[in-house]
Design a protein that fits this description.
With about 220 residues, the chain is an alpha/beta fold. Helix content is about 35%, strand content about 25%. It has 6 helices and 11 strands. The radius of gyration is 17 Å and the shape is globular. The protein starts with a strand and ends in a 5-residue tail after the last strand. It binds glycinamide ribonucleotide (GAR). Glycinamide ribonucleotide (GAR) binds near residues 9, 12, 44, 88 and 136.
Length: about 220
């Protein structure tokens, strides 16, 4: 059966678009069973609708607490089926119950070279620190915010005249390559989270994940 992806978004949906483009191109053997957005106005909702995908808008403000919001998401996601739940710019912190429910099938993309800069404003922080390189990371989600076991990272150079805009654009180009690739590993049954850590083809990955930089 085709690998089913549930994709959770809050914003522009460019990673969702990249995932869909790779599926269409035959480079990602998966189907998107559901797109969940906590914001009705998110551009990613339009991306999903344009692609004819099932969309659930679940507004966190309509729930008394995080656990109730997460329970509503679990109900919808499980009703559609998900072999992997992909956070693609989903900007809510998930409850321990949600993380546990999808343990080993919950993946996040983060716009920094983790463990550097968990949390928000990663591009500004990399610029502020004068870093020579920056990038993005994919990791399995655990209770530790942006701290779960790393799967893959891609780095980009920071240029002297970079702004948050130019730097984030360069990082996002890498995100759009990296996420479909990692999801392909999942779809092909090659990528697992085990008690020993992250394994690709049965071999443990280094603690920093696989380094996959842009071709020169
Ligand atoms: C991406 O750059 C992703 O790395 C980041 O949000 C952006 C979403 O863009 N995620 C986080 O900051 C998670 N903490 P998109 O909606 O265009 O895919």
């Amino acid at each position: 059966m085709t690998h089913r992806l549930a994709v959770l978004i809050s914003g522009a949906g460019t990673n969702l678009q990249a995932i869909l483009d790779h599926i269409t191109a035959g480079e990602l053997p998966a189907t998107v069973s559901l797109v969940v957005s906590n914001r009705a106005a998110a551009n990613g909702v339009a991306v999903a609708r344009q692609a004819g995908l099932p969309v659930a808008v679940i507004d966190h403000r309509e729930y008394p607490d995080r656990a109730a919001f997460d329970a509503a998401m679990i109900e919808r996601i499980d009703a559609h089926g998900a072999d992997t739940v992909a956070l693609a710019g989903f900007m809510r912190i998930l409850s321990p119950g949600f993380v546990r429910h999808y343990q080993g099938r919950l993946i996040n993309i983060h716009p920094s070279l983790l463990p550097l800069y968990p949390g928000l404003n990663t591009h500004a922080r990399a610029l502020e620190a004068g870093d020579a390189e920056h990038g993005c990371s994919l990791h399995f989600v655990t209770d530790q915010l942006d701290g779960g076991p790393l799967i893959a990272r891609a780095s980009v150079p920071v240029l002297t005249n970079d702004s948050v805009e130019t730097l984030s654009k360069r990082v996002q180009q890498q995100e759009h390559r990296l996420y479909p690739r990692v999801l392909r590993w999942r779809a092909e049954g090659r990528l697992q989270l085990t008690d020993q850590g992250v394994e690709l083809d049965g071999e443990p990955l280094p603690a920093t994940g696989m380094q996959i930089d842009a071709p020169a």
